[in-house]
Amino acid sequence: MRGPHDTRKIVTVLPLGQGKDNLPAEVTRFIGRRRELPAVAEAVERHRLVTLRGTGGVGKTRLALRVAADLRDTFADGCWLVQLSPVHAPELLAPAVSEALGLPGDAAGDPAQALAENLAGRELLLVLDTCEHLTEASAELAALLLSAAPGLRILATSRAPLDAAGEHSQLIAPLALPTDDATAAYTDAVALFVDRARAAVPEFALTPENTHAVAELCRRLDGIPLALELAAVRLRGMTVEEILARLNNRFRVLGTARTSTDRHRTLRAAVAWSYELCTPPEQRLWAELSVFPASFGLAAAEQVSGPGAGQTLRRLVEKSIVQSSPAAVPPVVGAEDGERYQMLDTLREFGAERLGTERPGGGTTEVRARHRDYYLDLAEQAAAGTMTARQADWLRWLAAETANLRVALDFSFSAPGQAPAGLRMTRLLLSYWLMTGQFTEGRRWHDQAVAVNPGSGDNAWAVFGAGLLAVQQGDFAAGGPLLAQAAELAAATGDEDLASHVTDARGSLAFYAGDLVTAQAEYEAALARYEETGFSDPAALITYGRLASVCLLTLDLGRAVKLCEECLQRCEQIGEQWARGTALWVRAAARWLSGDNAAAIEDALACLRIKAQVGDQHTIAMSFDLLSVCLVATGDFERAAVLYGAGDALWTLLNAPVLMGPGYAELRQSGADTARTQLGGERFEALAAQGGALPLPAALAVAMGGDAPTAAGADAEAKLLTRREREVAALVADGLGNREIAERLFLSKRTVDSHIEHIFTKMGFTSRTQLANWVLERGIPD
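User: That's the sequence. What structure does it adopt?
Assistant: C-alpha cells below.
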C-alpha cells in the first residue's frame, strides 16, 4: 500500500478485469463500526494478511467490504472481492480467485502458481470472504501469493483464524447494545434495526412507546446484524412487541430472508453453517456447553463434557463459536486457567436444540445434572471459604457465577428427583445472599425450597432462611411464622446450630419492630449458644454486632464497644472480613453517639472499604447513612446530602424499607433534617437526587472523601458538554451529517447546527474530524 509520499513505480503486467475493483454496491446503509473501521484499515496497512473473525451473521463481510471501498484509491490495482462460500473443494480455490480478478483461471499447469505469477507485479487488496471451510487451503494460497507479490495485501473473513504465517487476526463482535431505554436510540444495534425496519415498513419509527421493546429485542438477538435484519423484515406482519414475545422460538419466527447466499437465508442457516463445519467432537461439545447460560471456566467445561474437553473448547474458540476473555475475577478453583468462555445466546440456543435432538432418552438431563453437580461442589467449597481469609475471593467468585448458580438451582427444583441437591445448594448459598444484600434473590430460591422434602434437615434450614430473608425485607407477617416453624423443626431434628440461628433471627425480628427488650434477650441467648457450640458461618459471628446495635439504642455505649472488639478479635483469628466490617460499623456508631466524630468516621470508612470489597450492599447503605450523620456533625452538609441520597437509592434497590428499625430510621432522618435546614430544601433535594443517581463506585468515591458531583457530573468531560451535546458528538463520530443527526434525534437541523457550534466552542475544535477523533479516543461519558 502506498502512503501519500510514496513514489514507487507500480508495474502492471496484465489488466485485472474491468475497472479498479469488483466490490458490490451497498444496497443498505452502513451502520456503526466507527471504532472497527479505522482499526481494520490500520491493520491492513501494518500487516499483509488480516483476518476478520467472528460468529456467523456478525457483519464480517460487510465490514471488510466497507474497509476495502475506503482503501481502494490507495492501491494502484484496486480492491477485489472473492466469495468463497460456493467453493467446496480446495483445488478450486485458486481458480476462483483468478476468475474474480478477471485473470485466466484455466491456464495449464498449477493454477495457484499461475495466479502467483500474474499477481507478482501488482499492488492490490484481495478480500477473501468466508474462508472457514477452506482454512488450510486459504492459508497455503495466501502464503504463496504474498511471497510472490510484494504489493499484495489480503483481507480475509472467517469463523476461525487461517493460522498462516504473519497473519493478524481481529475478532469482530456484535453491535453495541443499549444498557437502558434512555440511550437506546444512540446504540449501533438499535440504529441498524430501525434503519432496516424503515426499509421494510417505511412508516416505522422509534417512539417513546416502542423504545423499550426495540431495545429488548436487540438485546435478545445479541446485537447480531443478521438477526436484527431478519427481525426487521418480520415487521411487515408483526409489531415489535409480537416479535419479542415469540423469540422463544426465534429460529422459526425469523423465517426466510431473500439474500443471494444460502447460508444467510435464515438465522438457523447461518448457525447451522457453522455447526456443519465442526467435527463431531466439536459439535458434541457445542451442544453440551449450551447448558451454561453465561460465562464459564475450563474446569466447569471439563466437568460437563469430560476430561480433555479443553482442547476441543479451544478449537471452538478459534472458530468463533465460543468467545474467550481473561477472567474478571481471579480464579479460586485450582483447575481454572484464568480464562472465561461464553457463547452468544443465538449459538447457545442452537446448541441446546442439538443436545435435545441428538441425545434422546435423558441426555439433556444428564448434562444439566453434571453442570449442577459442579456448582453444588463449588458452593460447598465457597461456604467453607467464607470463614477464611479468602472470603472476599469466594464472594467475588459466587457473584461471577450467578447465572450458572441460578440455572443449577432451577434445574434442581424443576427436574424430577433433583430437589435434594437444590435444597443443599440453597442452604449453602444463604450466607452469600445475606452477606451481599441479595435478599430478593435469596427469598426466591428459599420459597421454592420450603415446599421440598418437608422434615429433612436441609428443608428445616430452607424454612429458616425464608423466614430470615423475609424479616430482612421487613415482611414480618411472613417472616414470623416461618421462624416459628423453623424453631419447631430444629427441636424435632435436634439441630443445635439451626436452633441458635433461629434464636438470632427472632432477635432481628424484634429489633426491626422496635422491641429492644425482646431483641436483646434473643441476641444474648443466641450469642451464648454460639460461644458454646461454635460459630459456623459469618451470620453467626455478626450476632456480636447485632447485640451491640441494641446497646447503641439503649445508650449502653461501653458494652457496645466491648462486644465489637470481641467480634474483631474472633474475626482476626480466622481472617474473616464481613462480620469484622459490621463490628467496625457499630463501633463507629457508638463513637459518633459519644461525640467522637473523627474516630467514628475512621471506623466507618474502614467498614466501607471491607464491605465494598465483599459486595455487602446492605452495610454499604448503612455506612452511607452513618457517614452522612457524621458529616452533618462536622458541618459538611453538601457531602452529607449526597450520601443521604446514595443511601436512599441503595435501600430502594435492596427492597429493605424497614432499614434497621424505628430507632435507626429516626437517627438517620434527624441528620437529613439538619442538613436540609442548613442547605435549604431545594439545594438539599438536588444534592440528594444527585447522590441517588450516582453509580455505586462514584458514590463510594464521594464517601471516601471525593468531591460531591456538580450538576454536570463528576467527569471533567461531562462538565463541558450537556447530555444532548454528548449524543450529537457520538453521532458525528458515527459519520452522520447534521440532517441525519436531526432525523435520528427528532430535532430540527438548525438545533443540531447550534449544538455542534457549542461543542466546537467548548472543546476548542475547528472540524468534525477533530470531534470524531476525540470521541473515538476517549469515548462519550454517560
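DSSP finds 39 helices and seven strands in the chain.
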